Amino acid sequence: MITMKGQMKALTFTSEILETTFDLHVYLPPNYNPLYTYHLVIAQDGRDYFQLGKIGRKVETVMEEGARETIVIGVPYPSVKMRRVWYHPDSEDHKKYIQFLVKELLPFLDDQYQTWSLPHGRTLMGDSLAATVSLMAALEYPNTFSRVMMHSPFVNETVLNAVRENPSWNRFEIYHTIGSEETNVKTTDGSRMDFLTPNRELNKLLAGGKARYYYHEFNGGHFWKDWEKDLPEALRFMFTLD
Predict the structure, then answer these.
(1) For residue 120, what are the domain limits?
(2) Which Pfam families does the UniProt record give (predicted)?
(3) 31 phi, psi to nearest 5 deg
(4) For residues 7-29, b (16+ Cβ closer than 10 Å) or e, as one string?
(5) What dihedral do alpha carbons 39, 40, 41, 47 form, nearest 10°?
(6) How many domains, in total, are found in the chain?
């Protein structure tokens, strides 16, 4: 069994914008020192990334390989219904969630931890709709976030148009992966959707730009067992020193 050397802790934060209190999941690197400056990851679907993705152990492993010292914050969702309300790009409250990230959560985390204040030092990540809202937040606030990790994002015309209309992503670092079997995915509203085809469309847009961009189609579906296997590669791409 792998023994973690870093710290796993909980941090309570109340959002006035979302009228919700969060029990944030926190990973701090080994020998964390408040005098040092760290990279920051904010994971949407945060409970899943910590419990199902085991991101604490995985980021620790890649740091042992030489990756940058990184703090990971997991933002959980209170219910499947609210997850869709906050994350879906066509939801009325989608922008409220992004405002929460930028105007409330990030200043709070800056008060708690010493992290790089430049967009290059901040990463947003998520799976499915959580990946979508991560990308949309970076597109809306490119001077705040310029690193995005996406596992099987939900992609529709709203997302594609946001990429087409906002060239700021050309300065980003983007990790983007999708399963080759994601052609008939059951979504949280009960419908079924082809995720693979629109993700390939998104790939064509991003691959044609100037971003540091990695795209991969893994053998698998829209499941955490597949995203967990892919997570170390995503972390290596994003945080391994040049």
Answers:
(1) 7-239
(2) Esterase (PF00756)
(3) 60, 35
(4) eeeeeebebebbeeebebbbbbb
(5) 130
(6) 1
Q: Does some domain include residue 2? A: no
- Which among 122, 133, 134 is positioned nearest to 238, based on CA atoms? 122
Rounded to 5 degrees, what are φ and ψ at 152?
A: 50, 55
3-class SS at 27?
strand
**Cα Rg of the chain (Å, integer):** 17
Rounded distance between C-alpha atoms, residue 96 and residue 85, angstroms = 10
Q: Which residues have a Cβ under 8 Å from the Cβ of 181 and sit 6 or more positions away?
A: 196, 219, 220, 221
Tokens of 219: 């053998």
Report yes or no on 1 lying in a domain: no
| CB half-sphere exposure, 226, CA atoms < 13 A | 18
pTM over 0.90: yes
| SS3 letters across 171-201 | HCEEEEEEECCCCCEECCCCCEECCHHHHHH
Residue 221 lies in a domain: yes
CA-closest candidate to residue 72, choices 7, 11, 26 = 26
Mean pLDDT by 10 residues, the chain (242 residues): 82 98 97 95 98 96 94 97 97 96 98 95 98 98 98 98 97 98 91 96 98 97 97 95 64
Number of C-beta neighbours around residue 234 at 10 A? 24
How far CA 23 is from CA of 74, 80, 202, 218, in Å, comes to 9, 16, 33, 32
CATH number at residue 117: 3.40.50.1820
Q: Are 138 and 124 in contact (CB under 8 A)?
A: yes
